[in-house]
Amino acid sequence: MRSLGQNQTEAELQDMINEVDADGNGTIDFPEFLNLMARKMKDTDSEEELKEAFRVFDKDQSGFISAAELRHVMTNLGEKLTDEEVDEMIREADVNGDGQINYDEFVKL
């Protein structure tokens, strides 16, 4: 979250986890993470911050978040994911079924 311009205390982070942990497993999966970031970005009410968050994931600036880019960012955030987990995250967010996440799909999460 710090790489996305968000700086919370440990207590604030735990509150956010509790707020968006839809399945109650004590961790945040990718759709829950995107939901959390969307809420935080809406709180700041800035389209530019949403675009910046998307750019963090879209390393090659293609306008799409690929599985490789998602894996890279999540690894940098400390998440070790299998190929299957990354593919599942893409499937959950990929509304149009092209195997990538575009900006509109990112914003809707």
Automatic annotation (TrEMBL):
Superkingdom field: Eukaryota
Q: Where is the EF-hand domain?
A: 8-43, 45-80, 81-109
| Gene3D superfamilies in the record | EF-hand (1.10.238.10)
Instruction: Answer whether the UniProt record assigns the keyword Kinase to this protein.
Output: no
Region span, Disordered: 1-20
Which keywords are on file for this protein? Calcium, Metal-binding, Repeat
Q: GO MF annotations for this entry?
A: calcium ion binding
What CDD domains would the database entry show?
EFh
User: Which Pfam families does the UniProt entry name for this protein?
Assistant: EF-hand_1 (PF00036), EF-hand_7 (PF13499)
Record-level GO cellular component terms: myosin II complex
The question of whether Lyase is a record keyword is answered with: no
SMART domains recorded: EFh
Q: Where would one find coiled-coil regions in this protein?
A: none
List, as start-end ranges, the regions of compositional bias called Polar residues: 1-11
The entry assigns this protein to a family as follows: Belongs to the calmodulin family.
Protein's UniProt name: EF-hand domain-containing protein
Supply the source organism's classification.
Eukaryota, Viridiplantae, Streptophyta, Embryophyta, Tracheophyta
